[in-house]
UniProtKB/TrEMBL annotation:
<keyword id="KW-0472">Membrane</keyword>
<protein>
    <submittedName>
        <fullName>ABC transporter permease</fullName>
    </submittedName>
</protein>
<dbReference type="InterPro" id="IPR050809">
    <property type="entry name" value="UgpAE/MalFG_permease"/>
</dbReference>
<keyword id="KW-1133">Transmembrane helix</keyword>
<feature type="domain" description="ABC transmembrane type-1">
    <location>
        <begin position="93"/>
        <end position="309"/>
    </location>
</feature>
<keyword id="KW-0813">Transport</keyword>
<feature type="transmembrane region" description="Helical">
    <location>
        <begin position="228"/>
        <end position="252"/>
    </location>
</feature>
<comment type="similarity">
    <text>Belongs to the binding-protein-dependent transport system permease family.</text>
</comment>
<feature type="transmembrane region" description="Helical">
    <location>
        <begin position="97"/>
        <end position="118"/>
    </location>
</feature>
<feature type="transmembrane region" description="Helical">
    <location>
        <begin position="182"/>
        <end position="207"/>
    </location>
</feature>
<keyword id="KW-0812">Transmembrane</keyword>
<keyword id="KW-1003">Cell membrane</keyword>
<dbReference type="Pfam" id="PF00528">
    <property type="entry name" value="BPD_transp_1"/>
</dbReference>
<feature type="transmembrane region" description="Helical">
    <location>
        <begin position="288"/>
        <end position="309"/>
    </location>
</feature>
<dbReference type="InterPro" id="IPR035906">
    <property type="entry name" value="MetI-like_sf"/>
</dbReference>
<dbReference type="InterPro" id="IPR000515">
    <property type="entry name" value="MetI-like"/>
</dbReference>
<feature type="transmembrane region" description="Helical">
    <location>
        <begin position="139"/>
        <end position="162"/>
    </location>
</feature>
Length: 323
């Protein structure tokens, strides 16, 4: 039977290009309704993702607003050499990695725990209330949440009043003006905003787990924690791996909106991240070539992190890739 299957596949693989194109067009016509639904997405990606790639030439040129991509003079790798010796860029790298690692260590685990806790709620009414409350911050912009945090952390704000009432501090202080506390503020506020939204995929996976697994484990005397450890978490393994890969690949892409709202002249030394640095150099100071070079370098490193994380994940999942 194996020889027959191989014989049948060979003519398809060796079919002329014209026949394969005709077969593709025939399939396309047969599925035109479905194909037309993805057409807007394809056009969007071409216009906003692929066409702008040509603009990366700016990283290798001395581009100004009076130039075009063709007339701007070539500088080769000069912009990248400047990056390597730029102290402010490396300070931004340190801040980005520090905040991103805190978000990875703390923020990656919390949605998993929260999803399991929500799934364990027996009352559907209370479960919906918890989900709605945890999702809500995601739909608020950082302008709104940032304004709330600035008010809460002020010397007369909510947090200072609570700490004073509890006797934990002797006098009020604005934590957002303290550079040493910014990483924690950025990490915890981002978790507060996104943890509930991050539970959606995990809850979807948990809802698909066969209930008979839990019934059999319960009959064998397994506690609820043992059921979660041996049934729930193994079934969530692939989606956890996928989220971990995407999170690792985005380590250099700290939240720009959050940074622009919470950063000030007092905490800038610990708040400046790569994205805000690129924004400041490119749009605020008009050094488009240098900003593009930084963005290109970060994108290359992010792709390397993505591939490496996928390789490690596939090794841990019995050579099964999730991408």
């Amino acid at each position: 039977m194996e020889n027959v299957a191989i014989t049948r596949e060979q003519p398809h693989r060796k079919a002329p290009m014209g026949q394969r194109f005709k077969a593709f067009m025939a399939d396309f016509k047969r599925q035109w309704a479905l194909q037309s639904m993805i057409l807007p997405g394809v056009i969007f990606m071409i216009v906003f993702c692929f066409v702008p790639i040509y603009g990366l030439l700016i990283a290798f040129k001395n581009y100004t607003v009076i130039d075009t991509l063709d007339t701007a003079p070539w500088t080769g790798l000069d912009n990248f050499k400047i990056i390597l010796s730029d102290k402010y860029f490396w300070d931004a790298v340190v801040n980005t990695l520090g905040i991103s690692f805190l978000k990875l260590i703390i923020g990656f685990v919390i949605p998993i725990i929260l999803a399991i806790m929500i799934s364990e709620i027996s009352s559907n009414r209370f479960k919906k209330i918890v989900q709605t409350v945890s999702y809500l911050p995601h739909f608020l912009s950082w302008i709104v949440l940032g304004g709330m945090l600035i008010t809460w952390f002020s010397t007369t704000g909510l947090f200072n009043q609570l700490l004073l009432d509890l006797g934990l501090i002797a006098k009020p202080q604005n934590s957002l003006l303290d550079p040493g506390k910014y990483w924690w503020i950025a990490t915890l506020s981002d978790i507060w905003k996104e943890a509930g939204w991050g539970t959606i995929l995990y809850l979807a996976i948990i809802s698909k787990i066969d209930p008979t697994y839990y019934e059999a484990a319960k009959m064998d005397g397994a506690s609820r924690l043992r059921q979660i450890w041996n049934i729930t978490l193994p079934n969530m393994k692939l989606i956890i791996s996928l989220n971990l890969i995407l999170t690792v690949s985005g380590l250099l892409g700290s939240n720009l909106d959050q940074t622009l709202v919470l950063m000030n002249s007092q905490n800038r030394e610990r708040a400046e991240v790569i994205n805000s640095y690129v924004y400041r150099m490119g749009l605020a100071q008009g050094d488009f070539s240098y900003a593009t070079a930084v963005g290109l370098g970060v994108s290359i490193v992010s792709v390397i992190l993505l591939v490496a994380a996928n390789k490690v994940s596939s090794k841990l999942n019995d050579n099964q890739s999730v991408l």
